Amino acid sequence: MKIKLFYSYTREDETDRDELEKHLTTLKNNGLIDEWHDRKINAGDKWEEKISEEMDKANIILLLFSTSFIASPSCQKEVEKTLTLKKEKGTAFIPIILKKCAWKDVEGMSEIQALPKDAEAISLWGNKDEAWSNVYEKIKEKVEKLRNEIKPTLKNNFKNILLDNPASDCPLDKIFVYPDILEVDKSEQKLEQNEVDAEKLCDIKFFKHKYILISGKEQIGKTSLCNMLYLTYIDKGLFPVLINGNKIFGKAIIGDIIEEAYQEQYECTNEYWDINKTNRVLIIDDINNRTANDSNYSTFLQSVKENFLYSIVLIDDLINLAGKSTEHNYFYLFSGYSIKSFGHKKRSDLIKKCIENNENSQFDINNIEQVARLDKDTKHIDTIIQSNIVPSYPIIIISSFNIIETATPQDTKETSYGHCYHAMITTQLYRVRIKPDSMNEYFNFLSGLAYFMFNNETKNASKDDLEKFKEGYKSKHILNDNEIIKKLINAHILVVKNEVYSFQYIYIYYYFVAKYIADNFASKKVKAQFRGIISRIHKKDDFNIATFSIHHAAGDALDILLENITLNAMGTFEKYSEATLDKKETKFLIDAIKNKELKLPRKQHNVTNHRNQQLEQKDNLQPTIDRQEEIIEDNEDNLDSLTIEILKSAKSMDLIGQIMKNQYGTFKKDKLKELFEEGQNVGLRLLKSFIDLISKYPDGLKNLIEERLTEIEQESNQSFSQERKQKISNRFLYDVIFGWLYKIVDSLGYDKLISISDDVNVNIDTTASKLINFSIHAWHKKNLDIDKLKSLYQSFDKDRNHVAQYILKDIVSRHVYMHKIGYQKKQKIESLLEFSTQNQISIQSKLN
Hints:
Elements: E1 3-8, H1 14-23, H2 25-29, E2 33-36, H3 47-57, E3 60-65, H4 67-71, H5 73-89, E4 92-97, H6 128-150, H7 156-163, E5 180-185, E6 190-197, E7 211-215, H8 222-235, E8 239-244, H9 254-265, E9 280-285, H10 294-307, E10 310-315, H11 319-322, E11 334-339, H12 344-359, H13 368-385, H14 394-406, H15 416-430, H16 439-455, E12 460-462, H17 463-474, H18 481-490, E13 494-497, E14 500-503, H19 506-519, H20 524-535, H21 540-552, H22 555-570, H23 590-593, H24 607-634, H25 641-663, H26 669-696, H27 700-716, H28 722-748, H29 754-764, H30 767-781, H31 786-798, H32 802-818, H33 823-832, H34 837-847
Parallel strand pairs: 1-2, 1-3, 3-4, 7-10, 7-11, 8-9, 9-10
Antiparallel strand pairs: 5-6, 5-11, 12-14, 13-14
Helix pairs in contact: 12-13, 12-14, 13-14, 14-15, 15-21, 16-17, 16-19, 19-21, 20-22, 21-25, 22-25, 25-26, 25-28, 26-28, 26-29, 27-28, 28-30, 29-30, 30-32, 31-32, 31-33
């Protein structure tokens, strides 16, 4: 930690100040000191405020005395402030006598040892270099003493506690990503849109004279956040002290609590209160554990206010703090924030760190194997989390990564995803000391309870309902019901609010309903229920139960489940053939691609930045997507038939994709081909229905889009030309086609299934299947096969299918933006696919 020096002097003595700076150069070069004087004030700064601010930051204030100094009003003020800082914060100061003057008569100076030796003015020394050398040595001694006094050193056992990672054997600082936090409107206790990266809390300037209050749900990572902030403050030379909220009870005395924590956490010989107030930081984790009454809690907060400039409080719910003190409310002291679960960008950052830890090497965007692993692991974890059925918390992401990458299911009846969910649940049970030989007892009970809720068409149970279930369960099974319910609540498997019991996370409910169905599939009732679930696959609950059933099922049960799913998929848009995207089908898109130039990235293109931009765009769109899903979910029973068919198509592809990705080692190739083809056909039939609709009513959809644009004009006071409206409408048609092709690739594509995709493509042999197959190869093999690309492009050109050529170029362009491609290969692609400006003009002429 650098010791900050502040020079207090008068301009008449500037030459002497320069001389002193020269003599202190060694200390500066060795990183021991940081200096400031008023010549460092920038244009536009308010000089009085800046001087006061820098004096507050200083560890040592150097008072350069002379008659001019004593006579200067501004210097007098600086002396007064120095004495105040000494009294309030313990800031050190050193008088340095430049010229003979009545410095001892200045208030507060008479008892102070001044420099140089014997306080003889430097101007009176025969050898001034000797005088300055004496000043240098004494300042150096003071600097070293201060550094030894304030250098923070943690006890090893406490540092190990801070670095302990609940989700991994890797130390926390090696696999940690700061979350985003949302600012809270304290008056209404609601979230604002002001989003901040929590890493900004590492800079105490962010506090802006306010304490920081951070709320977050169970397991979202509050403790890990405060531990990392603690370690960061240590690196910055600050002295954070960490206490748990349960320490604040009764007549809580801050001095005793803090001093005890300080002695436990630091290798120290001095008292915590000897440390400069500007270097103290108080972190209180889990304030909800405290049992202080209102008046005692208010007294404690008042003590914090008096003793700390910086404090961070971690809490489950802001209301638990905001409403505690009625007589003395100190909530106004805090800036409130709420931790967000990880979005796409943060998830990607954390997965990169997981890969780095697993491979013991830094992630490199030029390493195609690491990039492939990142994209594959991201897809796995996104699938596990789905539409937030599993919370996107760091502990969940890291656990999922470790399980998918390293674990082999002990129970071969479960898929890899099923094993991942199983591991997350058992981990929670192990934490409350459930023994392995008791797991089946708990899993059977939870399966029965979830199925009981499912039969009651709800996802919770009242106290009376729970008693009714337990009575029925005990008639068939041995059950210690008092112990089991208590342990399930402590394990955060169940939660109880107002005597209503439910599962802590919705994925646990889906997991156990599906487990019951898979375990009891021989029952006619259960089979009938599953057929009903599949017929309602467009609904969120039914889709997730069907998905989880696949994770559990094996043998005959799996075959029957599969038959139901396949038959349901075949019935979706059954009146339509599969889209081929030949020249005739895509004719309506000619206007959409006219004058719409595609480009490859420039030479200086940064792949990492582009990927981050794409992830941030997805994060920005996510609230809109979530709202749309909520609207659909709230109106599931009143959806029109077309919307239901579209949703069924999407869900069928996702479900078939998950089956293949999880069971590729179980099924024979013919079965995988059958599944892949049916999954692809579902998507292509939907695409065909859209194409036929446009062909039958060519102006219908365009008119609807233009009507909506007119509404937007009226709502936002902006104006679109008719030409602009036409372009937007045309582009929308293209985006639907391209977006649905991407959906097929995303649902069915997998590196282990590329040969299956190849066989299906050879069998179907349409433009659509070729584009899908090429896209799967590009993304999952991380390779653009130049020969295959050339063959496709030339065959589309021979057929005069310019829309297919454009789609192929679009696939390639997006791929190159997302991956590091060598210059020579990029040049070949640019030439082959006619990306140059001259070639674009030539292509556009063909479209006219």
